[in-house]
Amino acid sequence: MSDTIFSKIVRREIPADIVFENDTVLAFRDLNPQAPVHVLFIPKEPIATLNDVVPEQAELAGQLMIAAADYAKQEGFAEDGYRVVMNCNQHGGQSVYHIHLHLLGGRQMAWPPG
Ligand code: 5GP
Q1: pLDDT tens across 83-105, in order?
Q2: Catalytic residue among 38, 98, 100, 102
Q3: Which domains does the chain have, with CATH numbers?
Q4: Ligand 1, pocket-test mutation among 6, 8, 18, 30, most atoms within 8 A of CB
C-alpha cells in the first residue's frame, strides 16, 4: 500500500502529540479534535482499511481497543464513558488509509452519528 501521513508519524518524520506507544501500537492526539479527548490508536504496521485485516492480525486489531480502554482508565474518564470508532472507506468517512481507532471522550456523545 502507499505510504500515509500516519506511517510518517510512526517513523517520526512528522511531529505528533504521542500519548502511548508499545512495540505494535502508537497513539497520538487528533490534529482536528472532535471532543475534549480525541486520540487515534494505530498499528505501527500499515493496514489500509478494516477490510484488509486478516485473521492473523486479530490480536493486533484487539490491541487497539485494549490500548484505548487502558488510556481512558488511565486518564480517568473510563467510568463516565467514551466512544471508539473506526471509519472504513468512503461511506464510513475514512480519510487516512492506515487503520486507526478514534477514541473520543470528555463529553456526552450523540446517537445516531451523522
Ligand atoms: P478518518 O477520517 O480517516 O477516520 O480519520 C483521520 C483522522 O486523522 C482525522 O480525524 C484527522 O483530523 C486526523 N489527521 C489527519 N492528518 C493528521 C496529522 O497529520 N496528524 C494528526 N495528529 N492527525 C491527523
Answers
A1: 999 999 999 999 999 999 999 99
A2: 100
A3: 5-105 (3.30.428.10)
A4: 30
CA of 92 to the centre of ligand 1 (A): 14
What is the Cα–Cα distance from 47 to 42, expressed in whole angstroms? 9
Alpha-carbon gap, residue 55 to 58, rounded angstroms: 5
Task: Provide the whole-model pTM.
Answer: 0.98
H, E, C per residue of the chain:
CCCCHHHHHHCCCCCCCEEEECCCEEEEECCCCCCCEEEEEEECCCCCCHHHCCHHHHHHHHHHHHHHHHHHHHHCCCCCCEEEECCCHHHHCCCCCCCCEEEEECCCCCCCCC
Tens of pLDDT, residue by residue over 3-62, are: 899 999 999 999 999 999 999 999 999 999 999 999 999 999 999 999 999 999 999 999
